[in-house]
Amino acid sequence: xxxRPITDLPEHWQELVSTEISSLAQSWDEAFRSLxxxxxxxxxxxxxxxxxxxxxxxxxxxYTIDRGTTQLLIEQGIDASLIxxxxxxxxxxxxxxxxxxxxxxxxxxxxxxxxxxxxxxxYIRTLHQVLLRHQEYTEALDQFGNIGHVPLIKGDxxxxxxxxxxxxxxxxxxxxxxxxxxxWNAS
Length: 187
Hints:
Layout: H1 20-34, H2 38-59, H3 67-76, H4 92-114, H5 121-131, E1 137-141, E2 147-151, H6 177-186
Antiparallel strand pairs: 1-2
């Protein structure tokens, strides 16, 4: 998929609305009503936050964690003692710190939305710093197709392309580094 600059929504944007949203909202409402006890709602929300925090790092290919360990961490909490040897591809302490950073960023994002603040460059850069607090590098392909480690720039725009390759070989092209500031200015 090739990158394209951000554009305004089309005139008939309502046609773009996913039909799955209504069924998802209905499922959420049914699940919420079934949790009559407020502590059950809080426990459900806590597990959901843990899942999002863990899955973010998996989706971004920051680390791998086997499914059983992921479920255990969701159910019981983010605790290094729950991660067995061989269930992740990075040191356990590092993975736990990164997951907690993801969680801090998620909690901060919920608070930001609840306060109905304006989205600012300062907030985006602060969020980026929180997300990457304990992540020193990311994997990247060089011009020859070799995977290497690239230091992460925290709280600033990227300086190198970061176009992920799907398992089927298709490259998803993100905004080029030289266009990021222009895209922010256009938003």
